[in-house]
Design goal:
Layout: H1 2-15, H2 22-26, E1 37-44, H3 52-55, E2 59-61, E3 65-69, E4 72-85, E5 88-94, E6 116-118, H4 123-135
Parallel strand pairs: 1-6
Antiparallel strand pairs: 1-5, 2-4, 3-4, 4-5
Length: 136
C-alpha cells in the first residue's frame, strides 16, 4: 500500500515537471528501503459538513509545494502535497517534517497508522458551510 501512495506522489512530481528523488524511485524494487517520503492520513472535518450526496465523488489533489533553500532558490529541500477522496486525505511530505495534525507518519514499516483531523476552513467559512448544508 505504501508503494501505491509513493507512486501517486511520483506521478504528481512528474506532472509538475520535477524529477522524482532517487530514494523514492529505488523503493519500488526493494522489500526493505529507506526514504525521505513520509505519508500521513487525516479526516477533513470541513468536508464532513457537506451533505453526503455532495461529498460523494469529491476527489482531487492540492497544489504541489516545493520548499526552497533560503538564498539558493534553485535548491529544492522538500515537497508537500495531498490528495483526497471525500473526507479522507493522504498527505505527502518529502524531506519535511509532517504536520502532526495530519496524522502519524507512515514510513512503510509501521504496523499502525493513526488518522489526524484537519479543518482547513476559517471559523467564518465553516459557519457559512454549515448554514448552506442545513438549507439543502
Amino acid at each position: 500500500m505504501y508503494k501505491y501512495y509513493a507512486k501517486s506522489f511520483d506521478c504528481r512530481l512528474v506532472d509538475a515537471g520535477h524529477a522524482v528523488p532517487s530514494d523514492v524511485v529505488q523503493l519500488f524494487d526493494r522489500p526493505h528501503f529507506q526514504t525521505a517520503l513520509r505519508i500521513t492520513f487525516s479526516v477533513n472535518e470541513d468536508v464532513l459538513i457537506l451533505p453526503k450526496e455532495n461529498r460523494d465523488g469529491f476527489i482531487g489533489q492540492s497544489d504541489l509545494r516545493a520548499w526552497l533553500e533560503g538564498g539558493r532558490p534553485e535548491q529544492i529541500n522538500g515537497y508537500q502535497s495531498s490528495e483526497h477522496v471525500s473526507w479522507f486525505t493522504a498527505h505527502f511530505w518529502y524531506g519535511l517534517i509532517p504536520d502532526g495534525a495530519c496524522g502519524s507518519s507512515w514510513v512503510a514499516d509501521n504496523q499502525f497508522v493513526y488518522l489526524g483531523s484537519v479543518e482547513p476552513l476559517t471559523p467564518e467559512q465553516r459557519k457559512e458551510a454549515k448554514n448552506r448544508a442545513a438549507a439543502t
